[in-house]
Amino acid sequence: YAAFSDNKLIGYVIPVETQGYSSVIRLLAGIDTKGVMLGVAILDQNETPGLGSQITEIKYGQNLPWFTRQLSGKKAPDLNLSTSGVQAITGATISSRAVVEGISKKAVEFLKIESLAMLYVEDLPLSEPFLNPDKNLKQSVNKIIELSLKLIGTN
Predict the structure, then answer these.
(1) How big is the CA angle at 72 (ends 67 and 78), to the nearest 5 degrees?
(2) CA 147 to CA 141: how far, in whole Å?
(3) What b/e sequence results for 111-137 when a residue is b if at least 16 CB atoms lie within 10 Å of its CB, and e otherwise?
(4) Residues sharing a CB contact under 8 Å with residue 59, sequence separation 6 or more, in sequence order
(5) Which residues contact 47 (CB under 8 A, 6 or more apart)?
């Protein structure tokens, strides 16, 4: 999902599903146009209570979960527990790693596709979509999908 402010693209919200220790963790990751983390919202998880479930724990006096808050300001494609300065939850390394690496993997995939799509769209004449919107939209979408699949190596 693209985020705009005053008709200017300011970032994206990327849905992520990743396997934790005992459940699938579903979340949304917000990044700016350069891939820097703006925030994370964990939508659903069923990790071990008191351990992995701490990925959603909000400490007293704060308004956001401490684990996901530490991701803000870091480059999403570079996230990992070893080198990006993200502190894993004690006793819940698998859940911590799942969130961090899930976001990183999806961000890399998304940013590759998004940058390729933007290159393609920038080459389209502005008047072309108005001549035959259904035909041109379908062709554009198919071309973006085709090029994206080639870029990520699935075709």
Answers:
(1) 95
(2) 10
(3) bebbebbeeeeeeeeeeeeeeeeeeee
(4) 66
(5) 20, 21, 22, 23, 25, 53, 55, 92, 95
- d(C-alpha 68, C-alpha 24), whole Å: 17
CA distances from 60 to 45, 118, 129 (A): 21, 43, 53
Question: What is the model's pTM?
Answer: 0.73
Nearest by Cα to 18 from 10, 26, 28: 26
Show pLDDT as tens, one digit a residue, over the chain (155 residues).
888 888 888 888 999 999 999 999 999 999 988 889 999 999 999 999 999 999 999 999 998 899 999 999 999 888 888 777 888 898 999 999 999 999 999 998 888 877 666 655 555 444 444 444 445 555 555 555 555 556 555 44
